[in-house]
Specification:
The protein is mainly alpha-helical and 146 residues long. It is built from seven helices and two strands, in the order αααββαααα.
């Protein structure tokens, strides 16, 4: 099953940007996401448009944070990436005349809506500085896994 790993990758990048003493290039950061610089720039464009990061061209240019991590939630990042679906599965046929399929669609749709609301509510309550705090206070655990 294909998984969309952009959220995880971008969170990783944002935490590295917070630690960087100077802007980091698309080439440097694209490697942390396992992609090429052009795909990286497209992925980051939503975060730039939302005002969370900025990018500069030329010598000394690169990506840097525009807002502190405490002002950026998981939900902010998720929305800036313009995700449309949280779930990788969907309804087989949304418009059906079959009563069985209609019942299945109703139950799945309602369940997915509740799960999505719960997840997005959770995302709204976690800021990136909380993740950075976790990194700083569990560095010995993280280092042993890498």
């Amino acid at each position: 099953m294909n998984r969309d790993t952009r959220l995880s990758g971008v969170l990783h990048v944002l935490l590295h940007l917070e630690q960087a003493a100077s802007p980091l290039t698309s080439d440097q950061l694209s490697k942390t996401m396992g992609t090429n610089p052009a795909v990286f720039r497209r992925t980051m464009s939503g975060l730039r448009n939302a005002g969370y990061v900025q990018s500069g061209k030329g010598h000394g240019g690169g990506w840097s944070l525009k807002k502190p991590l405490s002002d950026i939630s998981l939900l902010n990042v998720f929305e800036a990436l313009e995700h449309t679906n949280i779930f990788s599965f969907g309804l087989r046929n949304e418009n059906t005349n079959c009563k069985v399929e209609g019942a299945v669609n109703l139950v799945l749709s309602e369940s997915m809506a509740r799960a999505q609301a719960l997840l997005l509510d959770s995302f709204e309550n976690v800021t990136l500085d909380q993740i950075a705090h976790l990194v700083k206070h569990s560095s010995s655990k993280l280092e042993s896994k890498e």
